Amino acid sequence: LVSIQRLKRELIDIRRSTSPQRELLSSILRSDHELIGEKTHIYFRDVFDHVLRISESVDSYRDMLAGLLDIYVSSVSNKMNEVMKILTVFASIFIPLTFIAGIYGMNFEDMPELRWKWSYPILWVIFITLPVVLLTYFKKKKWL
User: Fold this and answer.
1) Nearest alpha-carbon partner for 30 in 16, 18, 44
2) Nearest residue to 123 via CA among 100, 141, 140, 143
3) How far apart are the first and last CA of the chain?
4) Which secondary structure element, helix H or strand E, spans residue 68, and what is its range?
5) How far is CA 68 from CA 3, 62, 63, in A?
6) Where are the domains of the chain?
7) CA 28, CA 48: separation in Å to the nearest integer?
8) Could you count the other beta carbons within 10 Å of the beta carbon of residue 25?
9) Which of 35, 65, 73, 132 is the most exposed place for a label (fewest CB within 10 A)?
């Protein structure tokens, strides 16, 4: 990224220096001044063509650098999306478990299922089954 930005700045500097030269040479070629002879005019035309080619090359390189920057940003975005997907899967698994644990951790005296003989094992079955079901669902959807 740093090298792409550095190259882009260098191309802008080259563009800034060639643009005035192109305009100056263009105005020299359009004018019919007696100090510029026909032989000199040919050299100015040649220099103007070179400056024009350089300017076009700079534009082409600038477009290529913009494409490279887009590819880089896209690749970083894809990596970030992968990380976000994993974090979402973890959150989707642990938020329901945290909710259930939070409800049973409130220490209310009037919770009927606390007096049931099988409430504790059933809670563990839910804690184990819910993540397994969610992971299976995520794998079927090809999110993992």
Assistant:
1) 44
2) 100
3) 30
4) helix 38-104
5) 11, 10, 9
6) 2-140
7) 10
8) 19
9) 35
Q: How far apart are CA 71 and CA 52, in angstroms?
A: 29
For 38, how many CA atoms within 13 A lie in the half-sphere containing its CB?
Answer: 0
Gap between the Cα atoms of 65 and 56, Å rounded: 14
Q: Using a pLDDT cut of 70, give the percent of the chain over it.
A: 100
- C-alpha 131/C-alpha 114 separation (Å) is 23
Give the domain 2-140 fold. Answer: Methane Monooxygenase Hydroxylase; Chain G, domain 1 (1.20.58)
- Give the Cα separation of 144 and 82 in Å (integer): 10
pTM, full prediction: 0.60
List the one residue out of 75, 65, 64 whose CA is nearest residue 4: 65
Say how far residue 66 (Cα) sits from the centre of its chain.
Answer: 13
Instruction: Please tell me the distance from the alpha carbon of residue 29 to that of residue 36, in angstroms, as a whole number.
Output: 9
